[in-house]
Amino acid sequence: EVQLVESGGGLVQPGGSLRLSCAASGFTFNEYWMYWVRQAPGKGLVWVSRINDDGTATNYASSVEGRFTISRDNAQNTLYLQMNSLRPEDTAVYYCARNLGTSSGEEDFWGQGALVTVSS
Amino acid sequence: DIQMTQSPSSLSASVGDRVTITCRASQGIRSDLGWFQQKPGKAPKRLIYTASNLQSGVPSRFSGSGSGAEFTLTISSLQPDDFATYYCLQHNNYPWTFGQGTKVEIK
Q: Cβ distance B69 to B2 under 8 Å?
């Protein structure tokens, strides 16, 4: 069974840093591109970042470029999102996901989400 | 960045109604679009991939159409389980972008 479990969320002050983790199981992690998506309270979905299967290629939303870094440890089956220079508008539930965009129809999988609150 | 304009932002409908939601891209994205359903407190789940292909296990009352810059999600006969928020996602060009969402409520 595919499982994605996020951790590392919490309360952080503006300007602070936080690292989210996403532990993957039930599939061959190093064969899949992975993604982060966020959702502010009561708001819509926002695509944040993606990383390819071996970690050599990444992309970011304009709103987080230069502040967030996506990475992965394929030996540990774990995806990360390092978030620096956090702003109140970064407050959101952060989801990790697999197969977010596909032309093959392979099922998408999402974690349960990790809440990040940026506030003083 | 490609902007995805989704409409309407919300709608009220009755069980059995036909419902149509539209996404317009600010530039052509071929058929690189998915439709997702999200229920309160839950992660989203994809219904349609590459604009018009039904995800395995999704009821056939859901369908998608379009290519280029205009796309439609149709629910042919709304069921109680379909009251949710729906999002389109373009995966043609980075950064990928979601539409703003359409909340489908009970009339």
A: no
